[in-house]
Amino acid sequence: MAQGVNIENYSFWYGRTQVVKNISLSAPVRQVTALIGPSGCGKTTLLRSINRLHELHPGTKAEGRIAIGEEDIFSAAVDPVDLRRRVGMIFQKPSPFPHLSVFENVAAGLRLHGLAQGKEVAERVEACLRKAALWEEVKDDLGRKGALLSGGQQQRLCIARALAVEPEVFLMDEPCASLDPVGTMRIEELIRELKHDYTVVIVTHNMHQASRISDQTAFVLSGELVEVGRTKEFFLAPQDPRTEAYLTWKIG
Amino acid sequence: MQAIRRALYSGTREGVFHYVTLLAALGLVALVVSIFLVVTLQSAPAWRAFGLSFLTTSIWDPMANQFGAVPALLGTVITAVLALAVATPLSIGTAVFLSEIVPQSWRRPLSFVVELLAAVPSVVYGLWGLFVLAPWLRTGLGQLLADYLGFLPIFAGPSLGIGVLTASLVLAIMVLPTITAISGEVMRGVPPELREAMFALGATRWEVVTKVILPSSKSGIAGALLLGLGRAIGEAIAVTMVIGNANLIPVSLLAPAQTMASLIVSEFPEAFDLHLSALLLLATLLFSITLIINLIAAWFFYRPSQHVAATAKGSVWAKLLRKGS
Ligand SMILES: Nc1ncnc2c1ncn2[C@@H]1O[C@H](COP(=O)(O)OP(=O)(O)OP(=O)(O)O)[C@@H](O)[C@H]1O
Ligand SMILES: [Mg+2]
User: Fold this and answer.
1) Domains along chain B?
2) Are A161 and B200 in contact (CB under 8 A)?
3) Fewest CB within a 10 Å sphere: which of A73, A214, B227, B278?
4) Residue B303 in contact with partner chain A when CB distance is under 8 A
5) Closest partner residue to B194 among A97, A113, A162, by Cβ?
6) DSSP code of residue A152
7) A233-242 per-position pLDDT tens digit
8) pTM of the prediction?
9) Phi and psi at residue B14, in whole multiples of 5°?
10) Where do the H-state alpha helices sit in chain B?
């Protein structure tokens, strides 16, 4: 079941440095929310807070509330390990497990959580590869190592891998940063498909990409949320002069 | 020579530097080859006298000029394998702990301690084995084994304190830092994205270690284990001090025995003629075995399907060169 993400007064510190400053932002269910902003403004940090991946680094501090659906992810009742299963994440660098085949990469999460047994595994793997628009390219050799695919195929493999555990939310951190235009286009098509079933939050440096695929765009500057709006309005008529400046500088 | 002269006179400093380092490298190779040649040549008389029976008979009698290496060969294999069996879980566990669990700020000091252990001279380990471990084994674990499991040939008493078990345990401790340092280095070379990708699928730290870190560093770990094995096989002084040096086929772990290296060390000072040649034949064997093991280890580090990051490979080798193993 897809769930929306609700971030309320969220702040984050690496040691003494505050990199996310009191951000409130909703990512509506079954929509694509794009996070844009200059390098180092805290987009990745914010994104990684949503599945509590940041907690793996010692010496960090978070304040505020993030809810997936109705549930506060920082509440004591939530196990971060379980939370991460419910939140799929795609990284900037495609990261298939190099020691596993294409098939086993997708099956990894199924096996991890015992979500499928026997023949069911193969069915689920196929379904996920189809959903990730990779099936046709790999179906003849599922035993090939995942790391031998092209960069774009690897990224779709990672999407298939994340799909397998049936997340409620998809987080993507510059998923096309290392891809060529064709690879990028295919991922964008895929994202448009995915949003029918999932909530997607995507970080991108590509303004055109944000405007093509997102329903909502948020602009972050030095850890602060400057502006958030429906994508069309956001790009056509930004309210804040800083957004305007960033967009003109970026696009113009 | 022409080329060297040209480089020296051309005034390019890189040229000179290049050839100086090349010469040093060639010199090193020549040294190793010449050591091997001398040892091999000196062992020829023993090889002519005994041939393959050197490897298949077990009487070692310098008085009768009769030399068969079976007890030493078996002693070497058994102590090395036991040492590795003990050291493997400990060192891989430590490596995982250092690379995946300890906070960043503790990693360096702890790794440094592990590397210090590798720098302790063997004779110190030997002394420790002789004066600490052996007495403790004699009255403690060894006595228990002899008392309760003594009906099994491999634990047949009496518990002497020195012997196969003691030697294996000393060796285990000696190879532990090598295996830990190298396999830890290999694990740290696993790209962080892979760890995070597994965490992001909802894996626990344990699952990340067992399903991503260990499988993707397995050939580096295999290499590390082989280097440890090579070290255990070649270790002489410490083993000589604690194994009891008896020319017996090692059946009981509590009984004294000897290894190829310990046999060479303990008899070399008084050996001459055929006896000396027999010891050098053992040395040739030892040299060849460790060379082969190290070559296989190198293959594990460098084979093309290995996905350990190039940086990790580089530093593994930097480490090996520093250790001079
Ligand atoms: N592990 C860390 N320890 C300390 N500071 C960090 C760490 N990771 C990131 N930072 C700092 O936090 C700030 C925000 O980083 P973040 O990665 O979230 O930026 P970003 O918006 O994703 O940038 P980019 O567009 O370049 O990916 C940066 O100033 C960065 O230097
Ligand atoms: Mg980033």
Assistant:
1) 71-321 (1.10.3720.10)
2) no
3) A73
4) no
5) A97
6) H
7) 999 988 999 9
8) 0.83
9) -60, -40
10) 2-10, 13-50, 53-56, 70-96, 104-119, 122-128, 134-139, 141-149, 164-188, 192-200, 205-208, 214-216, 218-234, 237-242, 260-267, 273-302, 310-323
Nearest to A53 among B103, B194, B199 (CB): B199
Q: Any bridge partners for residue A199, and if so which?
A: A169
Averages of pLDDT over runs of 10 residues in chain B (325 residues) are 60 74 91 91 90 89 88 93 96 93 88 89 93 90 86 83 91 94 91 92 94 91 93 91 87 89 90 88 92 91 54 46 42
List pLDDT tens digits, range A155-170. 999 999 999 998 999 9
Identify which of A45, A90, A207, A246 to mutate to test ligand 1's pocket (most ligand atoms within 8 A of the CB): A45
Query: Chain A: residue nearest B101 by CA?
Result: A56
The pair of three-digit structure tokens given for residue A3, joined into one six-digit string: 């769930």
Q: How far apart are CA B273 and CA B43, in angstroms?
A: 10
Residue B179 Cα, ligand 2 centroid: separation in angstroms?
Answer: 36
How far apart CA B321 and CA A61 sit, in angstroms, is 42
State which residues have CB under 5 angstroms from ligand 2, the bound ion. A 44
B194 touches chain A (CB under 8 A): yes
Q: Which residues of B, range 50-109, sit inside 8 Å of A by Cβ?
A: 103-104
A82: nearest CB among B198, B202, B307: B202
Size of interface A-B (CB pairs under 8 A): 70
CA dist B101 and A108 (Å) reads 22
Q: Indicate whether A251 pLDDT > 70.
A: no
What separation in Å is there between the alpha carbon of A20 and the centre of ligand 1? 10
Contact A179, A150 (CB under 8 A): no
